Task: inverse folding
């Protein structure tokens, strides 16, 4: 099926706008009419078309200049506040993330691609948030990648103990700062087990900063993603880190180490959940995010 004539593109604008608003709402944020048009399911829509669709939809509203479902109007102020905070608070953390990724890929040569995801990519970052990273890695290295991100993340966070925290990022020794959001092995990409609109949107919003070619290869190999968001076909890497001049040799990380890394990672994961035991909202948020990543989550029972 040609992308230009996909089912999503052929759907009425009002239906596409409604479904995009719902998709954003599941992730806890909203966009202006202009921003919504740029990331609309089925391809971009002009701002006037989005406004017309909202005006004709009985279940959509504009609050705080954001397009939201009626039931979410009470949250529009907080979402708008996050967007405003992003402009002031995101730049130093973005620079920090680029430096972290440069060090990470120098120490872990089995990592083929890193993208910044979550609130830092979507435009709703606050200083109390952590930085989410999506990775593509060599086969047999998913757990090694998880452990490397977290070990290096702890070392990095020790230099930033004064960082603001919330129930998700508070830790006894150092704040949670850099975290692995989604880790895919290369073989899992060809094809992806999931090519639904949520996975397509995850790839659309994430910002590749290393190994953009691997992300482009993934998108090309999974054309159903383009049926949901044709915008993926023209996605570019606006940010990037240089390939480190010196990489650790790959023989330091044989696939046999992944089993041990799984045990270490699972123990660390259980500990993180234990630290959130008195914060049910944080546990709910983690459970939701993990549900959007299945079947690619680590340490599921």
Result:
């Amino acid at each position: 099926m040609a992308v230009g004539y996909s089912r999503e593109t052929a759907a009425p604008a009002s239906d596409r706008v409604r479904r995009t608003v719902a998709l954003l709402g599941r992730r806890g944020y909203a966009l202006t009419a202009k921003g919504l048009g740029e990331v609309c399911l089925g391809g971009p829509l002009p701002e006037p078309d989005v406004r017309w669709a909202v005006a004709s939809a009985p279940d959509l509203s504009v609050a705080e200049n954001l397009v939201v479902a009626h039931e979410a109007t009470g949250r529009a102020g907080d979402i708008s506040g996050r967007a405003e905070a992003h402009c002031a608070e995101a730049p130093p953390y973005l620079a920090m993330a680029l430096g972290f990724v440069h060090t990470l890929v120098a120490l872990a040569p089995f990592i083929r691609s890193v993208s910044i995801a979550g609130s830092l990519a979507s435009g709703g970052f606050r200083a109390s948030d952590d930085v989410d990273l999506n990775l593509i890695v060599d086969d047999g290295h998913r757990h090694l990648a998880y452990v490397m991100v977290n070990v290096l993340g702890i070392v990095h966070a020790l230099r930033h103990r004064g960082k603001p925290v919330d129930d998700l990022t508070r830790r006894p020794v150092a704040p949670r700062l850099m975290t692995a959001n989604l880790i895919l092995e290369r073989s899992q990409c060809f094809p992806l087990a999931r090519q639904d609109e949520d996975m397509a949107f995850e790839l659309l919003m994430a910002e590749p900063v290393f190994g953009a070619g691997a992300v482009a290869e993934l998108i090309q190999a999974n054309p159903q993603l383009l049926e949901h968001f044709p915008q993926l076909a023209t996605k570019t890497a606006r940010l990037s880190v240089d390939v480190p001049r010196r990489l650790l040799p790959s023989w330091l990380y044989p696939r046999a180490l992944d089993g041990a890394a799984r045990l270490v990672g699972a123990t660390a994961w259980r500990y993180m959940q234990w630290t959130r035991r008195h914060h049910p909202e944080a546990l709910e948020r983690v459970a939701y995010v993990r549900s959007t990543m299945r079947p690619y989550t680590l340490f599921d029972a």
